[in-house]
Amino acid sequence: MNTLFTRGRAAALAFALGAALVAVPAIGATDVTDIGSLDQAALAALPSFQIANKQLNDYGNNLRKQYVGRAQHASQSDQQRLAAEFQSKMADKQRQLFGPLFNKAQVAIASVASSKNLSVVVDKRIVVFGGQDITGSVRDLLSSVGDPVPPVSTPPPSKVGYVDQAAIDLTPKVKAATDEFVKFKNDQDKAAAEKLKAAKTDAERDAILKDYRKTLDDKQNQSLKPMVDSTRSAISDIAKGKGLILVVDKGNIVFGGMDITKDVTEKLK
Fold first, then answer.
1. Strand, helix or coil for residue 6
2. CA 137, CA 120: separation in Å to the nearest integer?
3. Which of 34, 45, 46, 200 stands the most exposed, by the fewest C-beta atoms within 10 Å?
4. φ, ψ for residue 95, nearest 5 deg
5. Do residues 168 and 17 make contact, with C-beta atoms less than 8 angstroms apart?
6. What percentage of the chain reaches a pLDDT higher than 70?
7. What is the mean pLDDT of residues 179-183?
8. Domain 158-269 falls in which CATH fold?
9. What is the pLDDT of residues 186-210, one digit of tens each?
10. 151 alpha carbon, distance to own chain's centre
11. Is the pTM of this model over 0.70?
12. Cα–Cα dist 18/232, whole Å
């Protein structure tokens, strides 16, 4: 029962591009001086975020006890309703606690980026070499007395683009390919489970699992890989046309950048 009332991101079959970023023309370190990076984990370690996180955990633990008690003798439909209600309250509490902190952090990031004339700031986790790490400056600004002041100027045009993978996943062709693969996988899961129940030796079970994995790999190459290749090609063409030096997933953009999601989804129609 407790599993109905746990926080966390549900696993989803992402229509992955196969890499965190898509490089376009070859570039040197001297070409990316207007790109910054930020260690978001370092900001999450600030006292204000730690306090909010503890408050959210305490709230979640207390709320979970209430809902588990209410769900013990409830019907399945009522359990699902209670689970959705629990998740909604947790989301509201998260927005209440972290919303002001995120807004303040965004202003601080924009302020530091503007002072350093950066056109984009990306998550430090995807940076192997180059760029300006502004983590210390942002952390100091957030730790100082008073709220950071928004920059007067907007960021300069960026050579870094980004795409919203969730929006691309919803384009008709991509969604159809993904839905087809998910249905096929569910059918194969059931078939493999039945075969494993009937298997009498480890050798038989190993053979069943080997065949299962090969069947899924073959289907993935047949139905998903062409769409992955098509998507990467669309992103590359649009990026080159706009003079971008690389494209990353929206989740890796902290500040600035050029959103080319709409261009990509239009090209995939």
1. coil
2. 15
3. 200
4. -65, -40
5. no
6. 88
7. 94
8. Protein Binding, DinI Protein; Chain A (3.30.910)
9. 999 999 999 999 999 999 999 999 9
10. 27
11. yes
12. 9
Reported in sequence order, the residue ranges of 179-252 that DSSP labels E, i.e. its strands, are 246-249
Both tokens of residue 127?
Answer: 């940076």
The answer to whether 1-7+28-156 and 158-269 have equal CATH topology is yes
Q: Which amino acid does the sequence have at 34? A: D
Helix H or strand E segment including 231: helix 225-241
Q: For residue range 71-117, what is the model confidence (pLDDT) as tens digits?
A: 888 898 899 999 999 999 999 999 999 999 999 999 999 999 999 99
Residues in the chain, total: 269
Q: Which residues contact 48 (CB under 8 A, 6 or more apart)?
A: 101, 142
In this structure, how many other beta carbons lie within 10 angstroms of the beta carbon of residue 146? 6
- Domain 1-7+28-156 CATH assignment equals 3.10.129.10: no
pLDDT tens by residue, 117-163: 999 999 999 888 888 999 999 999 999 888 898 988 777 788 899 99
The domains of the chain are located at 1-7+28-156, 158-269
What are the counts of helices (DSSP H) followed by strands (DSSP E) for the chain? 9, 8
